[in-house]
Amino acid sequence: MKKHTKTGIIRVIALTLLLCALTAYVLLDTFVIRHSLAEAGGAAVDRAEKPEEESLTYEALDAYSDTEIAVILKKYRQYDTDIYVADIRLESPEYLRCALAEDTYGRNIKEKTSEMAERVGAIVAVNGDYYGAREMGFVIRNGELYRAAPDVKLESLVINDDGSFKIVSQQRTRAMNLLEEGARHAFTFGPGLLSEGEFMVNRTDEVEQSMRSNPRTAIGRISDGHYILLVSDGRTDTSEGLSLYELAEFLKDIGTVDAYNLDGGGSSTMYYMGEVVNFPTTDGKRYNERSVSDIVYIGY
How deeply is 139 buried, as exposed, middle or buried, from its count of CB atoms within 10 A (0-12, 13-18, 19+)? Predict the structure, then answer.
């Protein structure tokens, strides 16, 4: 009887010590042990989360990070072309914003991408769809509908309040319906490049009469809160430029699921933290940042 009593006491003591040890660990873990929730250049990214695997190598040019926004600026060399990618993670899709030239909607109202970006305090920005060069096509910016007249030949990229992307035919939808369904931005240029990971272009597709290889601007979504802004150089001795299919193929290779082609050519400009990082050009000989109607940017 005494032997059983002694054994029971030992078990109680052992369990008590184990409980104390677990309690001490929880307290240390909560109040003392440091945990990083951000990767280098990344906001609110748990280190336990496996990052997307990239099959392409790149040079990391710079990184920005605060509690809400993280941007890694990357430079790739593919298709004999310099490609600049802003890899963006956001705590809220509200930080994916647009700005209009001179803060005004209208025809022939233009500013350089860098001028608009500096005025709104953008961390990173690219040129938008140059809506002012067209008389038709949906224009929704920051939740406000500016133009509802459809361009039935074109697709729109719709970015909803929840940060999701969808690419729609303007022939089969109405701008007011998109707004009522939660559209925050709607762009008219295109075409769509990727939708749910599937190609929307083939090797022969091009924008109207443009050349096969061009400077390009694109926007993409990898996952919730994870976005891509891209600009490629082109028309120069050092950068040939991309076809639409090459652009889509590249975006897919770096993990993009949904992607859309914005205005390219001489308009293609990427601004990052006070500087234009690519080589905007129309003729391939001179640096020439074109004035445009609008930008897409990341900021507060």
Answer: buried
Element of type H or E holding 87: strand 81-90
User: What is the model's pLDDT at position 43?
Assistant: 45
Task: Identify residue 256 by its one-letter amino acid code.
Answer: T
Compute the distance between CA of residue 65 and CA of residue 96 in angstroms, rounded to an integer: 15
Q: What is the enclosing helix (H) or strand (E) of 251?
A: helix 244-253
Give 9's pLDDT tier (boundaries 50, 70, 90).
low
Query: Within 13 Å, how many C-alpha atoms sit on residue 273's CB side?
Result: 10
Give the C-alpha separation, 239 to 58, whole Å: 16
- Cα torsion 267, 275, 253, 168 to 10°: value is -40
Q: Are 98 and 297 in contact (CB under 8 A)?
A: yes
68 Cβ contact partners less than 8 Å away, ≥ 6 residues apart? 43, 44, 90, 91, 92, 95, 300
**The model's pTM:** 0.81
Task: Tell me the C-alpha distance between 84 and 60, whole Å.
Answer: 10
Q: How far is Cα of residue 242 from the mean position of the Cα atoms in its chain?
A: 19
Coil, strand or helix: which one is 85? Answer: strand
Distance CA 186, CA 156 (A): 6
* Residue 54: predicted pLDDT: 55
The answer to whether 156 and 186 are in contact (CB under 8 A) is: yes
Cis check: omega of the bond before 191, within 30 degrees of 0: yes
In this structure, how many other beta carbons lie within 10 angstroms of the beta carbon of residue 212? 14
| Strand, helix or coil for residue 249 | helix
pLDDT digits (tens, 9 = 90+) for 219-271: 999 999 999 999 999 999 999 999 999 999 999 999 999 999 999 999 999 99
**Which helix (H) or strand (E) is 178 found in, with range?**
helix 175-180
Question: What is the rounded average pLDDT for all residues in the chain?
Answer: 87
Please state, in angstroms and rounded to a whole number, the distance separating the CA atoms of residues 213 and 264: 11
The pLDDT of residue 116 is: 98
